[in-house]
C-alpha cells in the first residue's frame, strides 16, 4: 500500500469522517459523514452519535438519520443548544473532523410500523423534520402511498429553509425525482412570523385548513397513515388530533395507522 492510499488513523471508537457542514441559522446546522460499511438501517431510524468528552468518555446523543437508506454517506440535521453538552462542541465540526457513530439503528418511524394505506402524513416541528428528510427520499414511501403530505412547523421562516430546499431538490433528483412526481405535498408553516401558511400543525388539522388549502379530503383511518416527530408536548397534541380522526398508534410489532417519535428529550424550544 503506498503512502497515498493509507487510510487516516482512526482516533475515536466508531469514528466517521465529516464530509460537509452547512449552517442554516444561528441555531441549526446540517452535516454529512462517511457511512460505516456495516451500517444497514431503515429510512426514518436514529443512531447515537457524538464526540469524545473532556473526561475521555464518549459523549453521545440520539440523532435521526436525515439521509435515506440508499445514500452512500449519512446526513444529520442538528440544533445548537447554547451550553448543550454535545451541540455546543458539535456545531464547530469541519470537513475532515471525526465524530463517533454507534452503528446500531433503532426507531419507530419506519414503514413496517404502518398498515398499508393511500396517503401518509409526515408531521414535524423543528429538527423533527430529520427522519422525514430521510423518508421523503426513500423510494418505499412512494411505492406504498399515492400521496405524501409533509407538514413542518417552525417559529421562523429561516428555520424552515432546510426542509424547503430538500423538498425543492427532490423533483430534480436523478434517483427518486420521477417516483416523487406530484405525489408529495409540502405544507410548511411559521408560527411567529408572517408566511404564506401560519399556525400550528394541530390547529391546521383540527380546523381543516390544511385539507382545504391542499384540496384534500379529511383524514380517515381507512386511507390515512401518519408519522409524528416533535417535542413531547407537540407529539401529545398531535396524537389527540389523529385519534379524533380515528387513527390508532402502531409499533413495529403491531402496525396500525400512526407512529410517533420524540425529536428530543426535555421541554425544548
Ligand atoms: P442536551 O443536554 O441533550 O439538551 C439540552 C436541552 O436542549 C434539552 O433538554 C431540550 O430541552 C433541548 N433540545 C435538545 N435537542 C433539541 C432539539 N433537537 N430541538 C429543540 N430543543 C432541543 N437533535 C437534533 O438536533 N437532531 C436530531 O435529528 C435529533 N434526533 C433525536 C432523536 C431522538 C430519538 C431523540 C431522543 C433525540 C434526538 N435529538 C436530535 C436530540 C439530541 O439527542 C440532543 O438532545 C441534542 O443534540 C442536544 O444535545 P446537547 O448535549 O447539546 O444538549
Automatic annotation (TrEMBL):
GO biological process, one term: heme catabolic process
InterPro entries in alphabetical order: Cbr1-like_FAD-bd_dom (IPR008333), FAD-bd_FR_type (IPR017927), FNR_bac (IPR033892), FNR_nucleotide-bd (IPR039261), FNR_type-1 (IPR051930), OxRdtase_FAD/NAD-bd (IPR001433), Riboflavin_synthase-like_b-brl (IPR017938)
Reactions listed under catalytic activity: 2 reduced [2Fe-2S]-[ferredoxin] + NADP(+) + H(+) = 2 oxidized [2Fe-2S]-[ferredoxin] + NADPH
Name of the top EC class for this enzyme: oxidoreductase
PROSITE patterns assigned: FAD_FR (PS51384)
Obligatory cofactor(s): FAD
This enzyme's EC code(s): 1.18.1.2
Annotated Pfam families: FAD_binding_6, NAD_binding_1
Molecular function GO terms recorded: ferredoxin-NADP+ reductase activity; nucleotide binding
Domain FAD-binding FR-type intervals: 11-112
UniProt keyword list: FAD, Flavoprotein, NADP, Nucleotide-binding, Oxidoreductase
CDD domains for this protein: FNR1
Similarity comment: family membership: Belongs to the ferredoxin--NADP reductase type 1 family.
Protein name: ferredoxin--NADP(+) reductase
Naturally occurring in which organism (per UniProt): Paenirhodobacter enshiensis
Amino acid at each position: 500500500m503506498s503512502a497515498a492510499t493509507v487510510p487516516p488513523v482512526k482516533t475515536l471508537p466508531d469514528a466517521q469522517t465529516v464530509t460537509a457542514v452547512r449552517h442554516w441559522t444561528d441555531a441549526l446546522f446540517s452535516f454529512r459523514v462517511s457511512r460505516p460499511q456495516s451500517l444497514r438501517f431503515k429510512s426514518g431510524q436514529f443512531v447515537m452519535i457524538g464526540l469524545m468528552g473532556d473526561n475521555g468518555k464518549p459523549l453521545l446523543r440520539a440523532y435521526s438519520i436525515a439521509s435515506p437508506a440508499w445514500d452512500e454517506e449519512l446526513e444529520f440535521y442538528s440544533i445548537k443548544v447554547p451550553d448543550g453538552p454535545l451541540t455546543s462542541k458539535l456545531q464547530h465540526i469541519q470537513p475532515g473532523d471525526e465524530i463517533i457513530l454507534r452503528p446500531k439503528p433503532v426507531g419507530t418511524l419506519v414503514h413496517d410500523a404502518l398498515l398499508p394505506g393511500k396517503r401518509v402524513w409526515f408531521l414535524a416541528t423543528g429538527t423533527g423534520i430529520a427522519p422525514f428528510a430521510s423518508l421523503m427520499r426513500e423510494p418505499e414511501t412512494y411505492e406504498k402511498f399515492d400521496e405524501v403530505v409533509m407538514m413542518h412547523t417552525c417559529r421562523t421562516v429561516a428555520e424552515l429553509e432546510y426542509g424547503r430546499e430538500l423538498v425543492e431538490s427532490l423533483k430534480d433528483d436523478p434517483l427518486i425525482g420521477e417516483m416523487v412526481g406530484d405525489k408529495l405535498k409540502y405544507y410548511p408553516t411559521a408560527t411567529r412570523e408572517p408566511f404564506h401558511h401560519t399556525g400550528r400543525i394541530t390547529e391546521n388539522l383540527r380546523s381543516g385548513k390544511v385539507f382545504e388549502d391542499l384540496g384534500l379530503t379529511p383524514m380517515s383511518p381507512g386511507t390515512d397513515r401518519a408519522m409524528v416527530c416533535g417535542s413531547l408536548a407537540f407529539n401529545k397534541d398531535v396524537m389527540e388530533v389523529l385519534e379524533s380522526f380515528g387513527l390508532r398508534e402502531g409499533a413495529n410489532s403491531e402496525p396500525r395507522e400512526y407512529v410517533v417519535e420524540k425529536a428530543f428529550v426535555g421541554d425544548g424550544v
